[in-house]
Specification:
The protein has a 7-stranded parallel β-sheet with strand order 4-3-2-1-5-6-7, sandwiched between helices. The chain is of the alpha/beta class and about 375 residues long. The protein has 15 helices and 11 strands. About 40% of the residues lie in helices and about 15% in strands. It binds NADPH dihydro-nicotinamide-adenine-dinucleotide phosphate (NDP), 1-deoxy-D-xylulose-5-phosphate and manganese (II) ion.
Amino acid sequence: MAQMQIAVLGSTGSIGVQTLDIISEYPELFKAHTLVAGRNVDRLIEQSIKYRPSLAIISDDRLYMRLKEALEPYGIATASGRKAVAEAMQQTSVDTAVIATVGYSGLEPTLKAIESDKRIALANKETLVVAGELVNRKLAQSQSRIVPVDSEHSAIYQCLVGEQPQSVRRLIITASGGPFRTKGIDELKTVTVNDALSHPNWDMGAKITIDSATMINKAFEIIEARWLFDISPEKIKAVVHPQSIVHSMVEFIDGSVKAQLGLPDMHLPIRYALGDATRLATTRPGLSLADYSRLEFFEPDVEKFPMINLSYHALERGGNVACVINAANEIAVAAFLAGRISFLDIRRVVEKSLEKMPYIPSPAYDDYVNTNFETRQYAESII
Ligand SMILES: NC(=O)C1=CN([C@@H]2O[C@H](COP(=O)(O)OP(=O)(O)OC[C@H]3O[C@@H](n4cnc5c(N)ncnc54)[C@H](OP(=O)(O)O)[C@@H]3O)[C@@H](O)[C@H]2O)C=CC1
Ligand SMILES: CC(=O)[C@@H](O)[C@H](O)COP(=O)(O)O
Ligand SMILES: [Mn+2]
């Protein structure tokens, strides 16, 4: 197999850093061709000196000169800005794009990578939340393919190997329940940013960690599954599994249920996606079931975490509804992290934005761009 040339978008983040670990684990198979960061120019410089990509891009233009001056002596090409990120997806020398930026920023490069027939390892679930229907339409017109990185979707993907679509009865997406699983509804009024950032099992970036705490992450994952696996929403169910050892399950029409298990460690789904769904041997620690005396499963508490059900609402209405939810949530989570609103205000901002923003039944790309922009403005105005 020729060495795979990989563009890592979001290389300075949680998934990006773990992707670079996997690239180092198999130097004969993988090469970091392009690294893209948002604002952490120091980490991008460090990574570039270590991994020697052909190209390093910083999204924030103001940081470009620092990047250029640091990497010029190493002969590494540099660029900045959103347009440069999109153009990087069209490089013919890149085979695979790992989309691991956070939020709406994943959409444009993913669409460009699809147009350029790249293989995509998709961590950025927001892309499918915002515009899953458009992404699937574009995929149908190209040679591009998406392999999921999100742990639940990687699990389902693995469970579906060798199965017929018509044999699937249900997808069962596991949820840890987040840091507030055992708290009472009233206690949620006073939780702090630090409380919400204390995920019981996974070490992740701040935005997804807050999404796990509100459980809107599960709503996003239900929407993500609907588009990734082309399955109707009523066949997708979330179940709370506090240990995060069973990463998700598929139930088949004969009553059989397949599950994928592993430690809560994203290296595994990233490795599986980079390996294009082949198994690559590793010396990293594996799962010892004897260490887990109990694996528990519960119905989600939708009274305490009503945003889980936004998934079904968004999929039933379609159009730009999920794009509105995502944009409002991004603004609300950023405001919560900055100490500007309380934890329960996140839901208020999302619900009010949903009431306010105009419905667009069949959005084109520009409609998503406008919906995202206008919803963010509205959400900011009610913070
Ligand atoms: N972390 C995890 O375990 C999991 C994450 N995911 C998904 O993966 C994605 C990434 O999550 P995670 O790694 O936790 O997030 P982090 O916040 O840790 O990292 C985000 C990365 O995106 C970069 N970035 C942010 N905005 C832009 C932009 N506009 N242009 C270019 N780069 C940008 C950041 O750059 P910088 O830091 O330089 O500003 C950083 O490298 C999310 O969509 C998340 O939902 C899914 C499953 C598990
Ligand atoms: C690691 C991963 O895939 C996350 O999406 C994780 O599942 C979040 O945990 P929750 O199950 O608490 O949302
Ligand atoms: Mn997940």
